[in-house]
Amino acid sequence: MPKEMLPYLLTMVLLMIGVYGIVVKRNIIKIIVGVIITEYAVNCFLILQGYRDGGIAPIMTADMNTATFVDKSVDPVPQALILTAIVIGLGTVALMVALAIRLYEKYGTFDISEIRRLQG
Amino acid sequence: MVRVLPLFVAVPLGAAFMLPLFERLKKVRWLADLVAVAVTIFLFIFALQAMASPGAVYWMGKWSPESIIGINLVLDGLSALMLFTINLVAFCATLFSIEYMKRFTSKPLYYSLFLLMVAGMNGVVLSGDMFNIYVFLEIAAIASYALVAFGVESEELEASFKYLILGGLASTFILFGIGILYNATGTLNMAQIAQTLGVPGQNKAVLLAICFFFMGFGLKGAMVPFHAWLPDAHPSAPAPISAMLSGVLIKALGVYALIRVLFNVVGVTELVANALLIGGIASMTIGGLLAIGQWDFKRLLAYSSISQIGYILLGLGIAAGVLFRPEIPKAVAGLALFGSLYHLLNHAVFKGLLFLSSGAVEYATGTRNMREMGGLRHQMPITAGACRVGVFSIAGIPPFNGFFSKLIIILAAVLARYYISAAVTTIISFVTLLYYIKVQRYILDGDVPEALEGVKEVPVLMQLSLIILAVLCVALGLFVPLLRESIFQEAERAILSGLEYVQLVLAGG
């Protein structure tokens, strides 16, 4: 296995940990943390797309010409993507936490196995 | 047409952010209604215009097609059809909401979320850029999570939480898939991705991306085995929102996105065709069988949605499968797609109608339990009439639209020699008839229970939106050949020739 594969595999492991948390855990807060971990996994995966060894920040200064800039800088597109993805993730998590608080008010518990008034 | 494309997103988005300000204006409560209805009428008229002249590309910020970072909006036949479906149901749901939502706390906030959802869906169907699909999809999805919980009762919160967790996971999978495609091609523009990938099925990384897309869009579109959230989430929402969720949201976010990515971006392979077929048959069968045992009216409708989504996926699977069988003429693929898209439009109309009439019944009687209802045709003649039209359509009784779309899908399956699929589809059509006979028997006919003696017909505006949809159910059935020429042929062509999409976007800009 080439060495460059390792970080990609680790993001997959992170994704699996998040999915495990969502599927197995009974506590609502832990499920929310599971969702957050999957979001981090995908953010790490996206930022890896733009990574290069010894790359510089994708900001073009006056003393650079386009060719050296393209040669040296990391890819800025994934950075823009995860910036957006983080904001969207924030919205989702805020809504999840708000729902968790309201659920606690209604049911008096965070245990998902006791929150089941809807019939299967 | 090109110049107005951004308005499909901008107008509802702008209105959505303006509406919460009306929360303070207690004296002019009708203002929020007026704005919401005006926006949806405006969008519907524009959608009609868009359908008249599909084939336009708008590049945001004047980026040229040559650059690899421009973001574009693409209107082709398929997008135009979806825009029409979304904005039609949105208009009827808004009309219905004016009276129905009076019982809830805040109408301006409700309309604000509603229009956010519409903006997100319009964005998804117009976007020509993978990442923008994700962004618009999240706008629509987050608004829908909040709308499911709008009543803030314990059941609604529970359903919304379940929906939110699975929906969030689906979004993550979709973003993962987009990341893989970006890695493989170095661009996010769908046309450029398609151009770079070339012949489908050669790149192994793309196969992983397809798996992620199947899981992600499958979860959003409630394809079996990813359907568990739907029967909780859709009935818990207020009725107009149920109509939007079942009628168009699962199609715009699930089915449409899946079609676009599979047919126009990564290209179908035989594996994909089989996955669509199996997913379609499983959804159809399991959704249909689970619907029979339901006593909650809206829950029955929700299970039926899973079943009907199965028909649409099956049609797509047949169309994709035919492409890999040289002995079967290509026209069969066109026929299968026609059936599938026609059923998509029909399902939006009749499931919207049925969910709205379930809302009307709940509004008048205060219950959703079918055991406690009966004889409503005497007390609520218009609602009952509209509901009956919806029932006949979805069950596939001849002159109504559901009959023709199911017939076309079955016909295409036979012509493509998928005999087992055709047989299963026919059987499930009878199962559908069975559980809708139950709806008629327990809700519309029979004796009136004592508790419901004083039930009255719902207000005029609610009746009006029911009547519009009921008339459409009949009209869509009567004018099939006309419709095929005017609307569906463009959409079929857009799907079947993946390359044409590339040409439209990169040359026609």
Please give a structural write-up:
The complex is a heterodimer of chains A (120) and B (509). With 120 residues, chain A is an all-alpha fold. Chain A has a single domain (5-107), classed as Helix Hairpins (Orthogonal Bundle). Chain A is built from 4 helices and no strands. Chain A has helices at 5-24, 28-49, 66-72, 76-107. In chain A, α1 packs antiparallel against α2 and α2 (28-49) packs antiparallel against α4 (76-107). The longest helix of chain A is centred in the C-terminal third of the chain and has 32 residues, at 76-107. The mean pLDDT of chain A is 89. Chain B is an all-alpha fold. Chain B has a domain at 292-478. In chain B, strands 1-2 form a two-stranded antiparallel ribbon. Chain B is globular, with a radius of gyration of 22 Å. The model of chain B has no long low-confidence stretch (mean pLDDT 90). The A-B interface holds A 15, 18-19, 22, 28, 31-32, 35, 38-39, 41-42, 45-46, 49, 77-78, 81, 84-85, 88, 91-92, 95-96, 99-100, 102-103, 106-107, 115-118 and B 69, 131, 134-135, 138, 142, 145-146, 149, 152-155, 157-161, 164-165, 168-169, 171-172, 175-176, 179, 182-183, 188, 232, 236.
